[in-house]
Design goal:
Blueprint lengths: L1 H25 L2 E9 L4 E6 L10 E7 L13 E9 L2 E9 L2
Parallel strand pairs: 3-5
Antiparallel strand pairs: 1-2, 1-4, 2-3, 4-5
Amino acid sequence: MKRLTKLISAAIMAAGAAASMGALAQAMADGEVRKVDKDNKKITIKHGEIKSLDMPPMTMVFQVSDAAFLDKIKPGDKVQFNVVKDGSKLTVTELKPVK
């Protein structure tokens, strides 16, 4: 019985984690790439509201967590992205071109 309880608890926790990940995917911001700086792992994006950071629309420079993101995009591309705030630094952690 204890083993069954542990299995059910694990399944519930996994379902909760999947639901949280789905919520994060829905929270992606929309934007347009203005500049790509591969040497410094930075991207300039003109973006709409970033609700997760309570940030209004603007154009700004972000660090990227993975330089490979910058190989898939160019200025003028429409993108969806997630960004996290680490102290005073904003870092793009996920970046997807929109077609």
